[in-house]
Amino acid sequence: MARQHRRHAPDREETLHRLAPVCPVCGAFAPLDYHNSRCLVGMQEQVRYTLKIRRCQNTACDWFRKPLRPEAEGGLALPYSEYGFDVLAFIGQERFAFHRTVPEIHTLLAQRQVDISQRQVTHLIARYEELLASKLMRPDHWQARLREQGRVILSLDGLQPDVGHEVLWLIREVLSGEVLLARPLMTSSEDDLVALLIEVKEALTERLPVVGVISDGQRAIRLAVQRVFPNVPHQLCQFHSLREAARPLLEVDRHAKVQLKKRLRGIKRIESALEVRPDPQARVLLNYALTVRSALTDDGRPPLVASGLRLQQRIRQIHDSLERLEDAPLKKGGVKRIKT
After folding, report:
1. What are the residues whose beta carbons fall under 8 Å from the beta carbon of 23, sequence distance 6 or more?
2. pTM, rounded to two decimals
3. Residue 104's CB: how many other CB atoms inside 10 A?
């Protein structure tokens, strides 16, 4: 959807020139031909740039009449983008480092007074993925390291932060931790995955043999690995194996956590009653209430951490702390013994 309101006036204006008034191909003088205006939104300010553009007039030059734009423009933003690299980096960090959703990132940018829509946030996430993939698909930065270890174990997995969006497929080398390829795909068919694996196989060359592949149990992955690496052992990821083995236990643990939460209902009502009390006892009890709330919202990391058992352990610790506080001797000039 198009923008429904005008942006505010830019905070400042700046003019950009080329470093040298000559053609970079033939070296002939390139006179100033025209200028463009480009407005970029950054994290701190909005700037309107006036771009002084030259053209080579040498008819024998391969760049005859081609626009020669200021070099500094390439360090400000991507071509045709309205947002600077600082906004792009912020969105990429929030997405992939902190796993925030598009509405959450949009809210954070709005709090920083950055004028942007949710659609533009989604668009810049896709551009960030493309930049990341273009860097990772250069094999020269990891081939030397893999030659030292002499063998390769591949890990294949797909990441889909939101339903309906592209799946970012990662092919990683397990022993070194290097990401060999990253590419977003709209579909995750067997043929698509075969193309990714073939690209990695050609980059590895014969001097880097693949001795194993690790992935989840997805059928398309299994068939693709069998076609590209027919004689290489293919193992189910240990985390997925552990999760499947612990599934019966996790069901029991989840039921136990539900029962524990039922016994702790009403904590918000207690907090509301304590917030209006100015006495020191109320402040201490309010901290205990916040601790209980924190324990209730911690889901752990199954199957490595059972959330029900963790909740039971934390509630027991809070209960024991309250009992020690209630049984503590009353000191002269101290706070009265707290009754729970």
Report:
1. 29, 30, 56, 58, 61, 63, 68
2. 0.47
3. 14
